[in-house]
Structures are given as C-alpha cells and as structure tokens.
Design brief:
246 residues; alpha/beta; three-stranded parallel beta sheet; three-stranded antiparallel beta sheet; 19% strand; elongated
Length: 246
C-alpha cells in the first residue's frame, strides 16, 4: 500500500487486515483476533518489531508492516537485516500468510518484496470526515523474460475493478494504533539522537584532557580553541561539562 503522508494508508491497512481476518475466521474457524491483532501481528517502523512479526507467523495470520520503508530500506540492500527479511518472505507460502506493507513510495523498499507482492494499492483520496478512503488497486505481474513488473487492473467475472473504498476502522482500535505508532516514533527518534550524539560524545572524551590542561594554564577559551583545533563553543561545553565553568 503506497501513498504520501495523510492519504489514508493506516485506515486502509487496518481495514483490510480486519476484514480479511473476519473472512478467515468464517472459513477456517476461530475468531478474527486469532489471525490479526496489534500485539502479535503489527510492526511499526522498528526493525526489531518487523523481525519479531515475520520470524514465526501463525498459520493464516495477517502480518501488518507499517511504514516498512524505514526498516526495509532499499538503499541498504546488503544489510544483514534486509537479507534476513528477503529470505524469510520467500518462505511464507506454507503458512498461507497475508503480508500488508505500507510505505510512502514503492521504491523505498528492497526489490525482492516488490517483486513478490501480488497487489499494489495506491491511496488516491482521503475522506476522513466522511469515514472512508479511496485507493486504486492493481495486480503485480512479473514478466520474467523481460525482468519487468506490470500493474494490470483486476478482472473478476468479466468485470474490471479499478478502485476500492476502505472504511474507517473501529475508533478504539485506531486510538490504540496511534498510541503504538507514537511510541515507536519516539524510540526511533531516540535512536537517531543517540547515533548523532555518539561521535560528539567520543570526541568530547578525547579532547577534554587537553582543554582542561590549557584552561588550568590560564589560556582563554578562544586561545584553547585555536590550540586544540575546535570551536570556541565546544570549549565552553567541555568546560561546563567538567564543572570548570565557562
């Protein structure tokens, strides 16, 4: 499922998963929650969550990978995580799983899942006030001799289906979805912040002895910055962190 932010991918994915779980329960037995629940089947952005959901799916389970382009990034196709997921997604057939992936654009994810997808759903218009969203639905057909993907419309009983309407999922369910999503975004931002700060923290530790030594000798901050080869702002931060004042 593809579409820019605000086009209704979340509504569409949850609605598709819920309605499919009802059909599975009707034909196979059990209740819809046996085949789709946020706790067991939803992964939002986070790599570890994606790996957890995809590692050992239950039979007929619906796997909902939200904003998958962040974790399964096409630019990191040699990454161990991507290789693992590419291997796993090729072995889903015995479990009869439905994998629903949402992302802002198809090129964001690795070519393996793009090639193995059966359908592409492109969000077209979000009518949130009216309680529904509209999307174009195409089959994904790989012409192996040409090495190209084609996207024909769906034909059933001589009828061509071009668009589909997704209805607003249950209010409480969407509130829980938004809570999970906000929590995962917070974790992602924390990881990014830590990754950004790591080099700086390492440099601080390496430069602190020299800065403190020059400071003890009475050098000004400007002079310390020149001698150590860093900005005066960094000198101020190192002195402040060490309790030596500014």
């Amino acid at each position: 499922m593809v579409g820019s932010a605000g086009t209704g991918k979340s509504w569409g994915a949850v609605d598709l998963a819920v309605e499919t779980s009802k059909l599975i329960a009707e034909y196979v037995g059990g209740v819809p929650e046996d085949y789709y629940s946020f706790k067991r089947n939803l992964a939002v952005i986070n790599k570890e969550d994606i790996k957890r959901v995809m590692s050992s799916p239950g039979k007929y389970n619906i796997l909902h990978l939200d904003d998958i382009g962040v974790g399964w990034n096409a630019r990191k196709y040699k990454d161990d995580f991507n290789i693992f997921l590419n291997d796993v997604i090729q072995t889903f057939r015995p479990q009869n799983n439905l994998v629903v992936m949402t992302l802002q654009s198809g090129f964001l994810i690795d070519k393996v899942p793009r090639s193995l997808a059966h359908y592409e759903i492109e969000m077209e218009s979000a009518n949130f006030d009216e309680g529904y969203t509209i999307a174009k639905v195409n089959r994904v057909v790989m012409k192996h001799k040409l090495g190209k993907l084609y996207y024909p419309y769906i034909f059933i009983n001589n009828t061509k289906y071009i668009r589909h309407i997704f209805e607003k999922p249950d209010e409480n369910m969407m509130m829980e979805y938004e809570r999970i999503r906000a929590e995962q975004l917070k974790k992602l931002n924390k990881v990014k912040e830590d990754e950004t700060q790591a080099p700086k923290n390492t440099a601080f530790k390496m430069l602190t002895p020299a800065v403190l030594s020059f400071h003890k000798e009475g050098f000004t901050q400007r002079r310390i910055a020149e001698k150590v080869g860093i900005s005066q702002g960094w000198v101020s931060q190192i002195l402040a962190a060490s309790g030596s004042g500014i």
